[in-house]
Amino acid sequence: MTAQDMISPGFSDPVFQSQAAFRALLAALSEPGTGQRVAAEIAPPEGLASATATALLTLADYETPVWLPAALRDGAAGAWLRFHCGATLVDDPAEAAFAVIDGAADAPKLSAFNPGTDQFPDRSTTVIVQVAGLEGGAAFTLSGPGVPGNRRIAPQGLRPGFTAELRENGALYPLGVDVVLTHGDGLIGLPRSTRIGEAR
Amino acid sequence: MTLHQMPAEDAKPAYNYAYLDEQTKRMIRRALLKAVAVPGYQVPFGSREMPLARGWGTGGIQITAAIIGPADTLKVIDQGADDTTNAVSIRKFFERTANARTSEATEEATIIQTRHRIPEAPLKPGQVMVYQVPMPEPLRRLEPREAETRKMHAWAEYGLMQVKLYEDIARYGEITKTYDYPVLVNDRYVMAPSPIPKFDNPKMHMSPSLQLFGAGREKRIYALPPYTSVKSLDFEDHPFRIQSWSQPCGLCGAADSYLDEVVIDDRGGRMFVCSDSHYCETRRAQGHRGTMLGDAAASGLVQPSSPHPEEAAGAAVSKDDPVVSGASTSILRDAPDGAPQDEGSREQRM
Ligand SMILES: [Zn+2]
């Protein structure tokens, strides 16, 4: 089997599929907690949700180092990313512009990624957290820019202490990573500006 | 005043959808996502050359090009009007390069690219405002060095700005800045709202629409997500006030809109009219009548009975931008009698 056989196709219509996917990402990060869908019908490589793969196809390229868990980096997902995005896969989470983690895995913590610098807080990692579901889990509330009043989300399959990590990340504001939860073709944005309320 | 380097209409497009190549769009899109994550912070980006003359709002155009898609309807305004040279050219640019659906109706638009104004009609969730910004750095007049202003933002050291504003009050009895009046975003970053009149500043606060700002020459992108706190800088003993007028719009009678003074004849006759031409036309179509409407119609300035006055060539009050088209005889920007005291010249003392 050649590398080409392993690599599933990317966008069939890159211009319009990436435009639509970007608007979903823009809506997700400007209105934290709202469920957004990427309509791009792609066959993602093993280990990546459709929304994760679509977000990376839309945003990643040779200018953006990507961090993947070892099993994904050394498998079909790593080959797929190198082929379609030309992205460099890095070992050090702190070097990544984009990262994909499993929400249930113990490591790496959000604090392992790049929070940016006080003069360039935009140079932080965007961490895509793949979860078991965007609804039906333990609920917590969000407030801050993009949220009129409060918004409640209940993603499934997040490791214990993940909301505490989000809170610690928010305490770094205006530094901090920006989080995108993905499952299937759905995604929810949790930028560093979002304040995380008590779990309930 | 035409777009140059544009192919003939029937030529096979030599450019990508919405002009920009996909690599450039990705770079701008990444900057936009960081901009919404840190409201009011200026994200550096690799601004590209656009096939438009300098001063045409290439920052705003690049943002629109990076976000627009087949589902969008684009409105472009300049000085509040849809029919200025600048607005028409930008609209045509996207009609040609992105086959964009365009509209002059604020409520129909999903993307509103603007210079100088926020529409009077309330914005809605899902709409995106794109501002063309000439000078994104609100501290630049106080500190010319970029390395220094970057540190001031990094450490939220805005004392110099406060001192400058207070000096204004000590000297003139009020803050003299009437356009591009600085705001504090999400209680963290001081931001330039672009050269909109301070009348429009309150519309930014907790707006249901997403607001994106592009400065092409200065290579900066910044953003306000919906429902974000935007406070105009002021002092307890000198609270922020917007401009007000002693008379309503002469054409539609609106008392809640931003007014421009226009010359209506060659004998020095003048009147105040809505700067937002679509708002004014909509009100007239609904039957609202200002005290000068009859005179204006008689002298051919407007056609009050037309449901689509903008389609009648030469019928609407000319709103050509004096900055772009040179001396304009129809719009006066100096403070006249009856105008609010702070609706003065565009010269900013700050
Ligand atoms: Zn009017």
Automatic annotation (TrEMBL), chain A:
Q: What are the UniProt keywords, alphabetically?
A: Lyase
Cite the source lineage.
Answer: Bacteria, Pseudomonadati, Pseudomonadota, Alphaproteobacteria, Hyphomicrobiales
GO MF term list: lyase activity
**What is the protein name stated in its UniProt record?**
Phosphonate C-P lyase system protein PhnH
| Keyword Transmembrane listed | no
**Organism for this UniProt entry:** Bosea minatitlanensis
Secretion signal, residue range per the UniProt entry: none
Please state the gene responsible for encoding this protein: phnH
From TrEMBL, chain B:
Pfam families the UniProt entry points to: PhnJ
Where is the stretch described as Disordered? Answer: 298-350
Please give the name of this protein. Alpha-D-ribose 1-methylphosphonate 5-phosphate C-P-lyase PhnJ
